[in-house]
């Protein structure tokens, strides 16, 4: 019994959590993370990103990613691999290299091929392209978009499909959990890849949400269906639901309701394969560092005590 056991009983592949290498020296943390009844899947929060994996050109370092991949294997957990092409945590040799179109394409192809080949057979999913969109649904002005144009996206998926035919290939983004311009933009990306004859298997909805602004499970599910109607599966890949800190007990109750709404949405959509929270304890959440004054976003508090959200998730499956 646990969050992932319940997800599986509901026909899903997993409920999981992100983790990050520095936290793995905390044995109390690792004990809870390693319980596959709660976490049937893990995602490395940082150690498979470009700046970790290829800090200088053609110089690959998979040590950090291997630690997380090995932990998943040891614990009998699935692995979501994250992420190959992203404007952020991108080393300056790529972002400021002033490469021409053909050179940047070959750099991107090499990064994808080397990285996916190294982890081949271990990744249930790969987030091939992350956060390519602005809030209005237009393309974000990254070095990839500026140099290559929108074709960088289908090119990345084509190379990824060849490198690991068994990994499901995902486009991943935030603020696409509710219908609107950015969600429509992500649907346009799915169709773009398909129009190039490429394979895209899924869309990852990150799910960095705010207590009280999550909306109904019916609305969330309707948005999921706007993706699945294009022939792709979906997953919530980085779920956390933040509030102002210190959190009041009523905020934590609303948070429980909001977590349950997300779980119900995934439950009712057959093509929603699972949910990953962006770490499980407030102690290691990324939220306070990026959104000052906000936090308390995860189902366990900083002392590893379960918050109301835990039972809400459990019972919503
Ligand atoms: C975050 C990590 O959790 C932090 O440790 C890091 O400092 C910044 O990145 N969207 C994503 C994730 O796709 O990779 C980000 O992870 C959170 C937002």
From TrEMBL:
- Does Chaperone count among this protein's keywords? no
Which top EC class applies here? hydrolase
Citing just one GO molecular function, the answer is:
cellulose binding
Associated pathway: Glycan degradation; xylan degradation
Q: Which GO terms describe its cellular component?
A: extracellular region
Subcellular location per UniProt equals: Secreted
State if Chloroplast is listed as a keyword: no
Q: Where is the GH10 domain?
A: 7-316
Enzyme Commission identifier(s): 3.2.1.8
* Keyword annotations from UniProtKB, A to Z: Carbohydrate metabolism, Glycosidase, Hydrolase, Polysaccharide degradation, Secreted, Signal, Xylan degradation
Catalysed conversion reaction: Endohydrolysis of (1->4)-beta-D-xylosidic linkages in xylans
Return one Gene Ontology term, BP aspect.
xylan catabolic process
Q: Which domain of life is it from?
A: Eukaryota
Name the family.
Answer: Belongs to the glycosyl hydrolase 10 (cellulase F) family.
What name appears for this protein in its UniProt entry?
Beta-xylanase
**Organism lineage string:** Eukaryota, Fungi, Dikarya, Ascomycota, Pezizomycotina
* Whole sequence portion shown: 20 to 336 of 396
